[in-house]
Amino acid sequence: MKIKELKKLPSLILLNSEGDILTAYKNVDEFYMVDEHKKTIDVLVESEIVDFVNGYSKLTNSEGEVFDYPTYSEGMRPSIEKIEKFIYG
To answer: Where are the extended beta strands (E) located within 1-89?
Structure first.
C-alpha cells in the first residue's frame, strides 16, 4: 500500500524525536509500520504489534536500524493507553 493511501487510515506515531521515527497505520486487521524515511518496513497483525510494543519482537527500518521498542524513553512513545486504544479500538 502506498504512503498516500496509508495517510487516509487511522494512525499512531509510535516513536517520535524531533519528528516521526515510526508510525503505525491501521487497515482493518493489519498494521502498516512506516519508518522516518516514509518506507513501509513491515505489515503486522494484532498479535505481532502487541509483541513489538511489549518487546517480544523487533523491527528493522529501511536503513538497517533495529527498533527494540521498550528501550526507547517514555518521552518518545505514546502512553500504553493510547497504544491499546489504537490497536483494539
So the answer is: 11-16, 20-27, 30-35, 40-45, 59-60, 66-67
Are 67 and 57 in contact by the 8 Å Cβ rule? The answer is: no
Residue 16 pLDDT level (bands cut at 50, 70, 90): very high
pLDDT tens digits, 35-81:
999 999 999 999 999 999 999 999 999 999 999 999 999 999 999 99
DSSP state of 73: -
CB atoms closer than 10 angstroms to residue 23: 20
- pTM assigned to the model: 0.95
CA-CA distance, 19 to 36, in Å (whole number)? Answer: 8
- The domain locations on the chain are 3-88
